[in-house]
Design brief:
Number of domains: 4
Helix content: 10-25%
CATH class of the largest domain: Alpha Beta
CATH topology of the largest domain: FAD/NAD(P)-binding domain
Low-confidence stretches: none
Strand order of the largest sheet: 5-2-1-9-22
Length: 542
């Protein structure tokens, strides 16, 4: 069987290698536009910052090494320009000679990926305008920084790549500003209040976020000197475009392959609507495991999983891809890590769920162990079924651990009740006796069961605490001019507090506020609320 693979980065090389393992008799040819294959696209920001030191570390495989390891043939600098499914033929252009050649196939795999979106604005031809998609992009930016050409930079785009580049530029001493047209950084990945927390941490680290701002142009004499935005111009020595990506599918026009906004539609077996044509990676849609709707997941993890499953299907070993959960994890400015899986509260409500959510601040390991820190965890569940719908987590520690527990739970349709007493690993260097994920689940269960009545940070910001008296429930008084209560000393009615008084209980993390509420309820107080996340997450008004 002759299999032609278009694209030689993540999905394409994974599919080709797996095809040869599944059926050594296959004749597999990979055509790729670039000079490199299997490069570490997700590692590019870390080369800019010097975390990855050598250029060679970005290249996972050379064409020669890949061919020797797998038996698949690789032709670099060869760009597919047309597909003719009726004849089972692909036209491809040799970028060195300009010659166009026809390649026959029995099965076709389209894994052509995506390219950075470059807006139609003035000045992008100036020196020191960068994108971040290939090793050459990262090499060029790092060389400019190390040559002393870049002291101030603007990063356009507040997604993963943009924030990772910003962090690494700042680590190299570059004064960096991040702009984004969306209301917040990490739009659609986090709920707004968590994105705002990230922005505040960025600002504390000297990386200024400017949201709700559009990029309008670049000025300079031969090189970048000023970046123009809808708000104001900013002096800069470099502009990094991380606005987003667009699927590399223009060559499919007229092929009959069904697409949505330029992205190839596939079924659960990664097949297109055209016989013998499959697609995977950043150029293709998959399915959202929770909603069953088509989803675009331009992630290296998705590309590799889909490429592997696709290869089995091409060789007749039918295997369905159940889909994605929108899972992601990233290292952000300010020593902050972020993870998410499943539906955010915003997305869950848009899908019609009646949800309950909670924000918790919990220890990431035994508090007495050196290096202990905090996780800020937001859990979202369906009220009717009590199934976990989504997890969002911020912290300096291993947020991937919390995220991956959520992946497993949501994939298996677990309820919060099923998750509460799971036998998670514990030792002081790694976790807490009640695992931080389980701790957060317990708090969500308390809220679902009405045992904890609270106000979320988002509700507080929207004015839900208006009319409430703020009560300081911290270990020691921390809120000036506020009534202070030590829950351990509450042993009946509290002098000066009416039992029907509207009381907002506030502490550092939320735990002592809940314990205070528990005691006050026992003694007849009927109108108390806990501020979720405490002052760790929400800056209190004076």
């Amino acid at each position: 069987m002759k299999v032609l693979v278009l694209g030689g980065v993540a999905a394409g090389t994974k599919a080709a290698a797996k095809l040869m393992r599944e059926d050594r008799s296959c004749e597999v040819t990979v055509l790729t536009k670039g000079r490199d294959i299997s490069y570490a696209g997700c590692g590019l920001p870390y080369y800019v910052g010097g975390v990855i030191q050598e250029k060679s570390e970005l290249i996972v495989n050379t064409p020669e090494k890949f061919a020797a390891l797998t038996g698949a043939m690789v032709k670099t600098e060869t760009e597919a320009v047309a597909v003719h499914p009726d004849r089972h033929v692909v036209e491809a252009k040799d970028l060195k000679t300009g010659e166009v050649t026809e390649y026959n196939y029995d099965k076709l795999v389209i894994a052509t990926g995506a390219s950075p979106f470059v807006p139609p604005i003035q000045g992008l031809d100036l020196k020191n305008v960068f994108v971040m998609r290939t090793p050459d992009d990262a090499i060029g930016l790092r060389e400019a920084v190390e040559a002393g050409e870049v002291k101030r930079a603007v990063v356009a785009g507040g997604g993963f790549i943009g924030l990772e580049v910003a962090e690494n530029l700042a680590a190299k001493g570059v004064k960096t500003t991040v702009i984004d047209f969306a209301p917040h950084v990490l739009p659609n990945f986090l709920d707004p209040e968590l994105s705002e927390y990230v922005e505040n941490r960025m600002a504390e680290e000297g990386i200024m976020p400017m949201t709700g701002v559009s990029l309008e142009g670049v000025e300079g004499d031969g090189k970048v000197e000023k970046v123009l935005t809808s708000k104001r111009g900013m002096k800069a020595d470099a502009l990094v475009l991380a606005i987003g990506i667009r699927p590399n599918t223009g060559f499919l026009e007229g092929s009959g392959i069904e697409m949505f906004k330029g992205t190839i539609l596939t079924d659960q077996y990664l097949r297109t609507n055209v016989p013998d044509v499959y697609a995977a990676g950043d150029c293709a849609m998959v399915t959202n495991r929770q909603t069953g709707k088509a989803a675009w997941s331009p992630m290296g993890s998705t590309a590799n999983i889909a490429g592997r499953i696709l290869a089995r299907n091409v060789t007749g070993k039918e295997s369905a891809y159940p889909g994605v959960l929108g899972t992601g994890v990233a290292k952000l400015p300010g020593g902050l890590n972020v993870g998410r899986t499943g539906l955010t509260e915003t997305a869950a409500r848009a899908e019609g769920y009646d949800v309950e959510s909670v924000i918790t601040v919990v220890d990431d390991k035994a508090h007495y162990y050196p290096g202990a820190g905090l996780f800020i965890i937001k859990l979202t569940a369906d009220k009717a079924t009590r199934k976990l719908l989504g997890v969002q987590v911020l912290g300096a520690g291993a947020v991937d651990k919390v995220t991956d527990i959520g992946v497993t739970a949501i994939s298996l349709g677990a309820t919060v009740d099923q998750l509460a007493a799971m036998d998670f690993a514990y030792a002081p260097p790694f976790s807490t006796a009640i695992h931080p994920f389980a701790h957060s689940v317990n708090i969500l269960m308390n809220k679902l069961d009405g045992e904890m009545e609270s106000i979320t940070p988002a509700e507080y910001a929207a004015g839900a605490a208006e009319g409430y008296e703020i009560i300081d429930c911290s270990q020691k008084p921390t809120l000036p001019e506020k009534t202070y209560l030590d829950f351990a000393k509450i042993d009946g009615e509290v002098p000066g507090l009416a039992k029907d008084a509207k009381l907002l209980l506030v502490c550092t993390k939320g735990r002592r506020a809940y314990l205070t509420q528990n005691r006050l309820k026992f003694y007849g107080y009927t109108n108390t609320r806990v501020l979720e996340g405490g002052t760790t997450f929400t800056e209190m008004e004076e």
